[in-house]
Amino acid sequence: MKIKKFSEKPSDLKDRIGAKPIVCYPNTHIEEKNLSILHSVRDHLVKKEEIIIPPRDAKTFEVKFGEFFRIESVEGPQVGDLNLFNLNNLEEKFYSGKTRALYGTHLSVGDKMFSSFPYLRSLATITWDTLDWYDYDKDGGSVHDVIGTRCDPYTSKLLTDNDYHYCCHSNLTRALVKEKNVQLDHAEKIVHDVLNVFMLTGFTNDTKQYFMKASPVRPGDYLEFFAETDLLGALSACPGGDCGSEHSSDVAKCYPLKVSIWTVDSKYLNDIKPSATSNYNRNHGID
Ligand SMILES: [Zn+2]
Question: Cα of 208 to ligand 1 centre, how many Å?
């Protein structure tokens, strides 16, 4: 944190500060050109499957290219931690940091969930968000962030010296082990920084620390995605519940989450192709 300062201010300080911000990664060329098609086909969606994620636990689900999936609040306000993988290659997984660099701190309709290097392609596009009205509040807070990581037992141990086994990191790991027969060691390594679905977060104005507030999500609210390749999803119902008080414990009131998978007749998707992995030649300057 940039609170304590030990160095003297330079004499040419005025020349060094106050430059105009430049957006690092202008994203206009990756604008979602398919969004109007995806919105028009939403009238023809047919529900294929529903999965209920119990509180303080996680489950996996599969979504094929061309299908939609929704994460829905049921029973009460609840935050979900989402991991996404290429179904056929679990090493290709959601890259929260680069997605944040491209779209900012919080995601909504039209934003794409990019995958890790060396693949870097869109795994899914967000097609609907019943909480998009929330925008950013006066504290700079909003929903569906890519700035947090996921609650985990290591940080909990570091800060409170407790062994707690139902953080999202552990829930996601357990789901991969139990449902996909991934070895525990490997599962833990491929669990990655999440999309914090429904979580209301930001950075404090003074210290720029990560903050959370009670989520505005209510039963019936959902976030909807279009799968741009075959996906394995894993969703944890965070032990923080609505994340209005604390996480990494059994204290908060928690509710289940629902994942639903939706199909649509392929005739509506003729113009949409699966996303392609990066065509960078991977030479890295080595001749
Ligand atoms: Zn969590």
Answer: 20
Report yes or no on 92 lying in a domain.
yes
- The range of the structural domain enclosing residue 136 comes to 51-269
Separation of CA 275 and ligand 1 centre (Å): 29
Q: Which of 103, 188, 89, 189 is nearest to 146 (CA)?
A: 103
What is the CA(56)–ligand 1 centre distance, in A?
8
Domain count within the chain:
1
165 close to 178: Cβ distance less than 8 angstroms: no
DSSP states of 176-187 as a string?
A: HHHHH---HHHH
Give 43 Cα–ligand 1 centroid separation in angstroms. 33
- Nearest CA to 197 out of 178, 173, 216 is that of 216
Provide the token pair at 152. 């985990």
**Residue range 79-109, pLDDT digits in tens:** 999 999 999 999 999 999 999 999 999 999 9
C-alpha 150 – ligand 1 centre gap (Å): 5
Tokens coding 83? 């991991």
User: Is residue 32 in a domain?
Assistant: no
- Radius of gyration, alpha carbons of the chain: 20
- How much is the average pLDDT of 26-35? 81
For 46, half-sphere exposure in the C-beta direction (CA atoms, 13 angstrom radius) is: 6
How does DSSP assign 59-74, residue by residue? EEEEE-TT-EEEEEE-
